[in-house]
Amino acid sequence: MKVIWLFSILCHFSCHSVSSQNCSWASEAVVVVIGGCILPGLTPAKLLFPDVPRIIFHAKVSDGVNPSGERRLVYDAVIVNKGSAYNSTTGVFTAPLAGTYLFTYSLLGGPTSEVRLVKNEEDLSYIHTILSTGEAQTGSMSVILTLESGDQIWVKLIEGNTWSGRGALNFQGILLEARLE
User: Fold this and answer.
1) Which of the residues 4, 21, 28, 93 has the least number of beta carbons within 10 Å of its own beta carbon?
2) How far apart are CA 81 and CA 96, in angstroms?
3) Contacts for 37 with CB less than 8 Å, ≥ 6 apart
4) Pair 30, 79 in one domain
């Protein structure tokens, strides 16, 4: 029988019993024991699903690039792209695996602005602003989707103006659960 021990969990419980101890180091310390062999740094997820890639991306529109008019938004400044599923040239995320994904996107829009999350040409959700001239408003949306391999997700500006300063326009996604067949 294989036994997995997570040292950080043990420390978590012992530290809460003595309030003066500092166990901030424990969040970094993961030790896995299998059949008596110590494997430091190997997480349970890597043991249980060694062949499942980590699909995570976070991109933003570069500062000073303020998209307007009806078009797909291209988040050209990539911060993270594990699994290389997000294309910073087209602004499209293509699901490499079937499964459940979480996406978030944001808008810093002017008087009347709207962006929509799109899956394979189908509008799924939207963020909009209705303000007085000279005003701006930030909004964000999170969506959990079941995707098939090859499904495409992107954000489309429907109307209005956006501002991208200081990372105001973001698009992120993460594979929560792969459907392995």
Assistant:
1) 28
2) 13
3) none
4) no
- 129 φ/ψ sector (left φ>0, alpha ψ -120 to 50, else beta): beta
What is the value of pTM for the model shown? Answer: 0.70
pLDDT in tens, 56-87: 999 999 988 888 777 899 999 999 999 999 99
How many domains would you assign to the chain?
2
Q: Positive or negative, the Cα torsion across 8, 79, 63, 141? A: negative
Q: How far apart are CA 125 and CA 157, in angstroms?
A: 12
Token match 């995707």: residue? 147
Q: Is 1 a member of any domain? A: no
- Residue 113 resides in a domain: yes
**Separation of first and last alpha carbons in the chain:** 26
Q: Does one domain contain both 38 and 60?
A: no
What is the three-class DSSP state of 101? strand
